[in-house]
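Summary of Year 1 activities. Much of the first year was spent building the evaluation harness for sequence design. The harness presents a backbone, in tokenized form, and records the residue chosen at every position. We chose the following record to illustrate the format because it has been used consistently in internal testing since the harness was completed.
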């Protein structure tokens, strides 16, 4: 094939592929243009996940009517003049590619009027073809309307996720910019329903409350560090407020949202040894430094940056977070347990809790286990055989150790049982057995209301029918708010809000496993949150009930996540440890 110059429309679509990956990319570019135009309010309207319509309006500086057609040409920008300007970027946008790229893969209409002008204008772009300029009387500001995204690039259209997934991505994006620009009023409406609304009064905590709820906003720790022209400020979560993934760790560099693994690592290092394995903090951090010290021209979507003195930046982020944790969350001094003769008295901080109906449900050995749950062999001494994964022998309870482990005797030796992992397994198998029908519910005396950020609210809304099958009664209760009025009777005594939150906390937005696998994962994670915890004192009756429930399980030796529920010490091993074997 001979070398040839690509037609203009093909080149534009190739360029668009680097800038416009999905509807959220369009929203990002247009919001950044609005922020660069010094807007005080941004309104975003979305239909069908952005495929049908994306409309963003602002009250910013606007585009002069004479420059409106030029603004949709490739490489047309008011933010750069020379190549040297690339190394001192003060704006969010700078390449002059966004509007041209969006217009090449959609039907786009731009209506704008510059501040102080009597007349504005409108121009339409259809698959890269620029129409004639219309002059109109308009208020100051800009409205960009993008319709039928990717209609002329069907291959790209096929790669989009479901409308629900695309809506979640847009919600997550707008949420981040609402956090970074609290003085700007954001209003996001998806399919004519308000997903986010902020007041724009500049109060960061008010924005946090509107996104995460008042309780979480109140708990977030404010940090601030300023050294030699470098500033890091924002909010981090205390050590008892965590998530199961890094999705709620957000960084802004000079007002630009960035994804940087090294920045995340420096933050997590500050939490090292303070959090359980697999748990991550929430954080919204804003870094400000000389634009000449950071290169933003390293990624087509401007989502990555490169620091001139990276080690210094990472060290300061780590220091700021560590200082905040030590200031607000001093390391507690451990108290020695009280001992009285030969009997162990639990510390006063422990409280007796009842596990109630969960133990009274009849167990069935023919349990239909879900697919996709990995299992690992329990850790046992290497010099004794591994017992089979099922057919646990009848055990005799001896007692509880460290308010975390149960000690039991069997015909083949001693068993140390992790009460949390064991309860997870019992709850999981009973719920999976009952899932073919309606799981009995227990109504709450007082329904509990909680709030989620827009992205998580959409995830939970998608799973409400399945939660209903599990015995939860959860309903929308305002924008991004939900009310829990009943929980499965198996989970009576557990925190209902905590059990529901795992539905959105432990899943990525684009996770699309088989339905059976998804249900099994949801049940396993709900049971993990509802199970008794380490450090919780159990009565003798509760300990007995837990052991009987574990004996009835089909896979009693691991929890639903594959962690061992018990360690077995055979009589033969005990005799050798005490020197009874070989000493005669």
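For this record, the design step produced the sequence shown next.
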């Amino acid at each position: 094939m001979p070398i040839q110059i690509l037609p203009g429309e093909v080149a534009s679509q190739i360029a668009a592929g680097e800038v416009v990956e999905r509807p959220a990319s369009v929203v990002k570019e247009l919001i950044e243009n609005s922020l660069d135009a010094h807007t005080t309010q941004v309104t975003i309207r979305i239909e069908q996940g952005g495929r049908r319509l994306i409309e963003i309006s602002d009250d910013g500086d606007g585009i002069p009517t004479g420059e409106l057609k030029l603004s949709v040409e490739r490489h047309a920008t008011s933010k750069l003049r020379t190549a040297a300007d690339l190394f001192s970027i003060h704006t969010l946008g700078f390449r002059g590619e966004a509007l041209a790229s969006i217009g090449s893969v959609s039907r786009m209409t731009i209506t704008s009027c510059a501040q102080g002008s009597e007349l504005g204008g409108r121009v339409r772009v259809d698959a890269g073809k620029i129409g004639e300029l219309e002059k109109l009387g308009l208020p100051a500001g800009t409205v960009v309307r993008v319709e039928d995204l990717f209609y002329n690039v069907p291959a790209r259209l096929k790669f989009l996720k479901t409308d629900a997934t695309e809506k979640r991505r847009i919600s997550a994006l707008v949420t981040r910019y609402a956090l970074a620009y609290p003085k700007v009023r954001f209003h996001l409406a998806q399919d004519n329903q308000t997903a986010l609304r902020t007041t724009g009064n500049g109060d960061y905590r008010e924005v946090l409350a509107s996104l995460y709820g008042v309780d979480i906003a109140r708990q977030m720790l404010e940090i601030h560090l300023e050294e030699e022209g470098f500033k890091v400020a924002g909010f981090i979560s205390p050590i008892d407020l965590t998530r199961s993934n890094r999705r709620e760790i957000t960084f802004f560099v000079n007002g630009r949202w960035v994804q940087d693994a090294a920045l995340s690592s420096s933050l997590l290092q500050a939490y090292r040894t303070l959090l359980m394995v697999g748990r991550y903090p929430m954080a919204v951090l804003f870094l400000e430094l000389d634009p000449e010290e950071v290169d933003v021209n390293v990624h087509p979507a401007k989502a990555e940056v490169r620091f001139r003195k990276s080690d210094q930046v990472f060290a300061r982020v780590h220091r700021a977070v560590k200082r905040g944790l030590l200031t607000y969350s001093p390391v507690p001094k451990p108290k020695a347990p009280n001992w009285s003769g030969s009997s162990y008295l639990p510390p006063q901080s422990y409280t007796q809790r009842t596990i109630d109906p969960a133990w009274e449900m009849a167990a069935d050995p023919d349990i239909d286990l879900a697919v996709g749950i990995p299992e690992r062999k329990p850790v046992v001494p290497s010099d004794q055989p591994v017992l089979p994964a099922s057919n646990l022998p009848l055990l005799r309870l001896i007692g509880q150790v460290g308010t975390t482990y149960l000690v039991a005797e069997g015909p083949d030796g001693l068993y140390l049982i992790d009460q949390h992992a064991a309860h997870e397994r019992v709850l999981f198998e009973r719920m999976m057995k009952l899932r073919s029908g309606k799981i009995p519910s227990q109504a709450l005396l007082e329904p509990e209301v909680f709030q989620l950020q827009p992205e998580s609210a959409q995830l939970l809304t998608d799973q409400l029918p399945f939660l209903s099958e599990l015995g939860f009664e959860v309903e929308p209760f305002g924008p991004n708010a939900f009310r829990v009025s009943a929980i499965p009777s198996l989970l009576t005594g557990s925190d209902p809000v905590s059990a529901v939150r795992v539905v959105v906390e432990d899943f990525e937005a684009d996770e699309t496993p088989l339905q059976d696998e998804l249900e099994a994962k949801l049940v396993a994670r709900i049971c993990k949150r509802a199970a008794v915890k380490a450090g919780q004192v159990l009565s003798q009756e509760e300990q007995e009930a837990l052991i009987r429930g574990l004996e009835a399980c089909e896979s009693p030796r691991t929890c639903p996540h594959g962690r061992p529920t018990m360690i077995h010490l055979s009589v033969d091993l005990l005799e050798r440890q005490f020197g009874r074997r070989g000493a005669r």
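The chain has a mean pLDDT of 80. Quantitative recovery figures across the full test set are reported in Table 2.
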